[in-house]
Amino acid sequence: MIHPLHQFIFCPACGSKTFQVRNEKAKQCTTCGFTYYFNPSASVACFIKNAKGNLLLVKRAKEPAKGSLDLPGGFVDINETIEETLYREIKEETGLSITDHTYLFSLPNIYPYMGFNVHTADLFFECYTDSFNNAQANDDASEIIILPPGELNPDAFGLQSIKKAVLLYRSKD
Fold first, then answer.
1. Residue 155, SS3?
2. Is the predicted pLDDT of residue 173 greater than 70, yes or no?
3. Does the predicted TM-score (pTM) go above 0.85?
């Protein structure tokens, strides 16, 4: 298995080229002793339901998996709570404000970004809004798709953790 920090050659503290593998998730500089632990980035993904029980999905506007179905969501920003991320990402991608949310489950994931594998902890939520009438595709979304939950097809989703989440979500009913 390739180490998650294999692309990191130089120590971020002293700049030395002596940044060596310490264990499966860390590298340590043999010059200054700095150890960098590569922990997963947090991200959220949302099954958004309206009052009729339908789900709002989006088509991905960007790689990876451009053009495939996705759940609105994204990475947690610095100094942001998970809940703030949830509300911000939904607003950015769909223009919607949600009225409530329920935590469902989490999945480990590897998100490919420009040749670098970002290890993530994906947190999945069911979110609620009265209506999808004002929804519009923005930011990372190219299109809004509305489906009844029974029509969710995991194979239509391009990202592996989202496919797994859709299978788990479908099995809860």
1. helix
2. no
3. yes
